[in-house]
Specification:
The protein has 447 residues and is mainly alpha-helical. 72% of the residues lie in helices and 0% in strands. It has helices spanning 8-11, 57-77, 80-91, 97-112, 115-124, 128-145, 151-180, 185-237, 260-289, 294-322, 324-341, 348-368, 370-375, 382-411, 415-440. The radius of gyration is 21 Å and the shape is globular. The two termini are 20 Å apart.
Length: 447
């Protein structure tokens, strides 16, 4: 964002209009074999994003690379429900569900929280080295989980260590896709996000299959070996198209909040993550509580994340037609309704139906949630703008599951927690619609 407040003319320079972004000066992108992570950042506007190739071998390799990175990061963190159930039943049986949930919620939050720093570094051209370093540490932390025996060790390694490393990787992996796609941006983001749902399906399924055969420790070590392969390939093919730009404003550009639509969008992100991770965290625990076998309870998370794959693809296709905010609002509303219904499931069939619908609807939200923030301004500032949005959303992610856990502990069940989470998700839908109205200035239109 520039230092001037967003005017009507600036608002037209977003993804939500049919007009491409235009800037007065352009710079040619470096050739494919030229690295730019340490190149001094330019203060001039960069190439018109409307000139993005929207395809080609390099562009799709970047999508595959980002897909693998999200497979490794979101795939592992979104499998927390499996760990929650196993820790509660075996390793940390004398620890309350709410306390155990803090490990997962900190991990969730830290996936988004570092985006403020990583987004700014990405705009300046520094993302390859931080991404590779975080990938190495993430693998080490995964192997260390197998050696943990006490609560504080799990919190330090799995909550803090894995969370921070995933956060360093995720932000740049999402933003770099914007360099290569313009007209097909939502589709590219959705295809990228499929990696998260594939990983979120694969890790719980692997855990369910291997824990009875080789035990928890060796199962986690298998996770580490998987990460070596996926993170290695992801780092190899990930690259930016546009040169670095040192836009004004420093790490924080508070003037971006003069755009009321962006401010409301940030509020909606906080509310959404306050509620969306509740069912994903406690669905396996609730399944055991209503008499579902422990073996099948592990598959609940895998089913939910597998269904999210279809939601992510569908949201991308629909988003390119009707707009990201319109699509997100509809999918998030379905997620809120299903969250209300989830605690009333009493058997395996009902849980499978709910987990499928819930996974499909949440997949639609998370696949596009970065798109509106990136589009509400110029492309050279997209990393910082998305980073600020993700960092604010992290406060919802860190507080949501423990609040729901405390509610369920106090009430003796998950009905009240479902009311809380579903209600806050529906509030997020209202904020999304308000952000849409503020951006368009009318009730109808692509946004």
């Amino acid at each position: 964002m520039s230092e001037k407040s967003l005017s009507a003319e600036a608002l037209k320079e977003t993804e939500f209009t049919s007009e491409p972004l235009h800037v007065r000066q352009t710079r040619a992108a470096p050739p494919d074999n030229q690295e730019t992570p340490n190149e001094p950042a330019s203060e001039k506007p960069v190439i018109n994003p409307g000139e993005a190739p929207d395809g080609g071998l390099t562009a799709w390799l970047v999508v595959i690379a980002a897909n693998l990175l999200l497979f490794s990061t979101f795939g592992l963190t979104n499998s927390w429900g499996v760990f929650q159930a196993y820790y509660k039943e075996i390793l940390l049986r004398y620890t309350s569900p709410s306390a155990i949930a803090w490990i997962g919620s900190v991990q969730y939050a830290l996936v988004y929280f570092p985006a403020l720093l990583t987004g700014r570094l990405f705009d300046l051209g520094y993302f390859k080295i931080p991404c590779f370093a975080a990938s190495c540490i993430l693998v080490v932390c995964t192997f260390l989980i197998a050696e943990c025996t006490q609560y504080w060790q799990f919190f330090l390694v799995q909550g803090l260590g894995i969370g921070v490393c995933c956060g360093i990787i995720v932000g740049p992996a999402l933003v770099v896709v914007f360099h290569w796609f313009f007209k097909k941006r939502n589709l590219a983001l959705s295809l990228t996000a499929i990696g998260a749902s594939c990983g979120s399906t694969a890790f719980p399924a692997v855990a369910q299959s291997l824990i009875p055969l080789i035990g928890f420790k060796w199962t986690v070590r298998v996770f580490g070996l998987i990460l070596i392969a996926t993170l290695g390939l992801g780092n190899l093919f990930l690259k930016r198209r546009l040169p670095p730009v040192d836009v004004r404003g420093g790490l924080l550009n508070l003037k971006v909040f003069r755009n009321t639509a962006y401010s409301v969008l940030c509020i909606s992100g906080i509310m959404a993550f306050l509620g969306l991770y509740t069912a994903l965290t406690y669905m396996s625990v609730d399944a055991i509580a209503i008499g579902v076998s422990k073996n099948f309870s592990f598959y609940i998370i895998a089913i939910t994340n597998a269904a999210s794959t279809f939601g992510r693809v569908s949201a991308g296709l629909i988003g390119d037609k009707v707009g990201a905010l319109n699509t997100m609002a509809a999918f998030t509303a379905v997620a809120g309704i299903v969250t209300f219904a989830w605690p009333f499931a009493t058997n395996e069939i009902q849980l499978i139906v709910i987990s499928c619908i819930y996974g499909f609807s949440t997949g639609g939200y998370v696949s596009l949630f970065a798109a509106p923030a990136a589009a509400m301004g110029k492309i050279e500032d997209a990393g910082r703008r998305v980073g600020m949005f993700m960092t604010l959303a992290a406060f919802g992610a860190i507080a949501g599951p423990p609040i729901s856990g405390a509610i369920s502990t106090a009430s003796g069940g998950f009905v009240e927690a479902g009311y809380y989470a579903g209600g806050i998700i529906m509030c997020a839908v209202v904020m999304l619609l308000l952000a849409r109205y503020l951006h368009l200035g009318c009730l109808r239109g692509k946004c």
